[in-house]
Queue: 2 jobs
Job 1
Amino acid sequence: MGNQMSYRGNGVSLGNPNVIIPALTVLFFVFLVGISLYKMLYDVKISSDVVIAKEVGDLVKIFKEIDKECKILDFEHQKIRINFLTVKGFVSSEIGSMSLAYPKKWKGPYIYDNPTIQGKEYQIVRTKKGYFITPGDGVKLSNGKVVGKDIILDENADIAKMITDQKFLNFDGKPLAAPLGIGSGKFSRIMMENIIRADDDFAKNEHAQIEDKLFQVALAK
């Protein structure tokens, strides 16, 4: 009995319900808070992917409209940030490293705020298989991958395959990037520029002929 420990002196007992129940309550509360925080962070990641899927689709529609009216010839860089759709007008044939055949047909602004995700602008990426709209470098997806770091988007990137794989640019069957079926390529760009130049020359000749006819009519009077 001399070696037996007793907790009666301080009024604490390991088997005392008055101690166990509050302790379990605190632990359960901490557990619930942890689960809630985890779910909140996970929901934020999922929400980002849902927003990406929608905004990528919206951007594709805008660029198709631009291509229909202005004819997109090419993009100067392998990656360009989409931060120029708010522009109302410009004087050259290029805007945001994008070359247009008919810049005067620009109908901007196409949007009033450049879309971003996690503070990063979307981008147009040129690959050997064409152009794609993707989230900007540095965006972290719900699968834990970071665009530009874990998902490399260089000339050799097979983005068409990535958008079908949830380990890359796909969330729950929704692609997080999209092909942009525009851009003429170098050879086609040269051909298009020649056609435009020929059209301009033709228009000038037509104008000159009309002026000459008007002058002759005036002389005849």
Job 2
Amino acid sequence: MVIRVYIASSSGSVAVKKRQQAIVGFLEANRISFEEVDITMLEDQRLWMYQKIPDEKRPEKGNPLPPQIFNGEDYCGDYEDFFQSKETNTVFSFLRLPSVKDSES
């Protein structure tokens, strides 16, 4: 499975840009393989992302904002979920990846 981070390269929101950078930077720094999917350039990917986000993670109005994280077809979460996993040191579990300890044994 591959980690996919759905981003918006042309977002006018500074908060969205910072959140995207935080996730991408963390993944790069920890050498976690991932793909960036730009939903502003790929309409079919944007629609796919919207369809795969669980109802409980959708806003009352509008569409879910990037960044959104998937492992293959499995929804991992949004920035808030990612941030929480960083705080609790459970990023590998959040991303549905084997932990570093598991891969060393």
